[in-house]
Fold this sequence. Notes:
By secondary structure, this protein is α/β, with parallel strands linked by helices. The chain folds into three domains: 12-142, no CATH class; 152-169 and 243-432, 3-Layer(aba) Sandwich (Rossmann fold), CATH 3.40.50; 173-240, no CATH class. The chain is built from 13 helices and twelve strands. The strands form four sheets. It has a six-stranded mixed sheet with strand order 7-6-5-8-11-12, sandwiched between helices. A two-stranded antiparallel ribbon has the order 1-2. Helix 3 crosses helix 5 (86-105), helix 10 runs parallel beside helix 11 (364-379) and helix 11 (364-379) runs parallel beside helix 12. The termini are far apart.
Amino acid sequence: MKYKYSKYTGDPLDDLDLEDLIEKLSDLLLSSGFRSPFGGMYGESDDDRTMQALHDAIMDALFNGGVLPEETLERLMGDPADGDQSDARTKLEKLIQDIIDRMMQEGFITPSPDLEAEREHRQSQGAGGQFGPDAPPTRFEVTDKSLDFLGYRALRDLLGSMGKSSLGRHDTRDHATGIETVAAPKPYEFGDSLNLDPSSTVLNAVQRIGRERREAGEALGVLDSIDITHEDLMVAQGEYQSSCATVLMLDCSHSMILYGEDRFTPAKRVALALANLIRLQYPGDALNVILFHDSAEEIPLRELGRVRVGPYYTNTREGLRLARRILDKQRKDMRQIIMITDGKPSALTQPDGRIYKNAFGLDPFIVSETIAEVAACRKSGIMINTFMLARDYELVAFVRRVAEICRGKAYFTTPYTLGQYVLMDYMDKKTRTVH
Length: 435
């Protein structure tokens, strides 16, 4: 019996960093309906999350994203001088399908309910028959694991670009007897937390006993025991660490994907990063998310990465009203609203439930009612920080007026710098808030 040996070239999947690929696909996985601006709120009718779109995005990441080494791609595609490239195309299609299968196995995506049977049917047709212009559009869903991973990566990238390595909680200028020691120990006073400094307390007791023995004319000698009294107690000083309740308001009106720019996907990425920041670094803080459009609604954090924009107006007053109701129930040291928008208020919910809309200019009625809600937020002790993704003169004046009323801040930024502004503002409160 004769054996023929060939060189083992390995599996291309062995050279693939799946997490790096998922990060490259974040624009697709967090898509906001940019390709189909009139899709539903949760993307029922848009084509962003079809298997064909995923196939094309993976192919682009393989050739342009650097997720596979050049040697692996050259080995996979063979010599371009060869006339017949059908074998290379078959290998490429098989690799992409293997990647999709691995993404499903790892729990980053899941097929739509009716996808599995269709997938088995297409597999029976042979490699390369699953995608193409003639293939019916099958869909996939993004899992919570994928959204959590993308939020963590977004947080890491944003903090890395700001030069932050480790973060504490929301500290203030006031010193209090807390856990983190940042100043010299102080004598214990009534009302202080009994966060004793052992060495300073024992030293005080020894010095006191020494003084008493000298005044009595006795030799200090060896102390069999050290009696500690109230006056010996020393407590460690720390910076006061406050807690914060935040409502993140996201504008999902039609203007967020107009003018050839997707502004909502970066806003979702920032929101996911903020949620991870609070969960990992500020576990005592609270975060709620509100979408405001023709009306306003609170959504669970787990649905944040799946929401879409739609053909909506901008009902800023209703969003602020809902946020105020949520924050009024919170008993935190700081309560704030982070509002991300790119448009003027153009809708208003009337007492009878009807929606009054006017997209032409700043409607005085809508503006006055919105400003009244801003004043109500200030009366409740709620700060509003607005992150504006547009720079129209009228909008700038409106946002600055909001900031003046509620003593908040107005940031005029772009989708590319939005994340740094939001996270820096959130963390800076630990040095600016005084209690």
